[in-house]
Amino acid sequence: MQTVQTILEKHRVSDSLAQAIHCVLDCSKEISVLLQKGAMAGVLGSAENENVQGETQKKLDVISNDLLKERLAECPVVAGIASEEEDLPVAANEDGQYLVIYDPLDGSSNIDINVTVGTIFSILPSRGEDPSKEATYLQNGRQQVAAGYVLYGPATMLVMSTGKGVDIFTLDPTSNEFVLTQEQVQITPSTKEFAINMSNQRFWAEPVQTYVSDLLAGEEGPLAKRYNMRWIAAMVAEVHRILNRGGIFMYPWDNREPNKPGKLRLMYEGNPMSMLVEQAGGLSVNGEINIMDIEPEKIHQRVPVFLGSKEEVEKALSYHKA
Ligand code: FBP
After folding, report:
1. Probe residue for ligand 1, chosen from 251, 257, 306 as the CB with the greatest number of ligand atoms within 8 Å
2. Given a cut of 80, is residue 52 above it in pLDDT?
């Protein structure tokens, strides 16, 4: 039985980075218990507050955010944190080597209906810069030293990369240990499955309109293939499906708010998921370039996302270049 620590040692990950990762994972185990208790623990429903994105927070958004913030602040190797639920970065330990950026509960709209959600994390080097300053965190996705998510579904699972491939672990409820269950996962290059919120179709730009209508045209259409569709409304669950059986996940720009490039956030959704997808042989782009090559300008900036099976994402990209 191989645990997270076994794999971190196998990949020669430094003790300090391992410490930061274990801090995130210990919090995720507590979040998993809270989600399983749900209404019994009185943690379902809205918190009646709005976050910096103008979204109504769920009670568990706030609880999981505070738990991670408190624990990471106590972890000596962590210089600072940034979160979907925090307007500004939070400085932690002056001598800390790492910045931890996270989405405490991705897929929040699923919490009250007992559907899969997850915690997404991205770890960057602090470079001795001031962790209370937003600029310190504005590093492109290729600077990530680790990225992953914990999926709270029928099983609680961890998917992680430290730049040496992607490994998947399952939380053993008996030992409360994440145990390795899939090693060095690779995404199939081609697929017959796509995920996009079709209800936004009328707002999409022409390349996405054309590509998606060709997907829907099936065998008789220009792509000459019958595609199936999925939408779980939780990016963690979509990416997990793609790591396991291929596919393409899209959340494109749309003209509802023309100046807002899509819904998903670059620093704590786009970049960590892109590191996992690329490390597993897939592709992740914004319609023009690889997401991890984008130079960030703001902690909460948004990014259009097209990720998954390499050949299919290249196909989607070709519609943008046509
Ligand atoms: P949160 O992190 O606020 O939950 O938002 C992101 C997200 O829930 C993604 O996980 C998911 O892919 C998408 O928004 C769902 O969007 P929509 O509500 O348009 O279906």
Report:
1. 251
2. no
Share of the chain above pLDDT 70, in %: 100
Alpha carbon of 14 to ligand 1 centroid (Å): 33
| Joined tokens for residue 10 | 């196998």
What's the CA-to-centroid distance between 97 and ligand 1, angstroms?
A: 31
Q: Is 257 annotated as a binding residue?
A: no
Q: Domains in the chain, please, with CATH?
A: 4-182 (3.30.540.10), 193-321 (3.40.190.80)
160 contacts: CB under 8 Å, gap ≥ 6: 4, 21, 146, 147, 148, 166, 167, 169, 276
Asked if 192 contacts 225 with a C-beta cutoff of 8 angstroms, the reply is: yes
Q: Closest Cα partner for 252 from 237, 262, 267, 243?
A: 262
Give the largest Cα separation in the chain, rounded: 61
Rounded average pLDDT over 288-305: 97
Give the pLDDT confidence of 59-90 residue by residue, as tens digits.
Answer: 999 999 999 999 999 999 999 999 999 999 99
pLDDT in tens, 214-229: 999 999 999 999 999 9
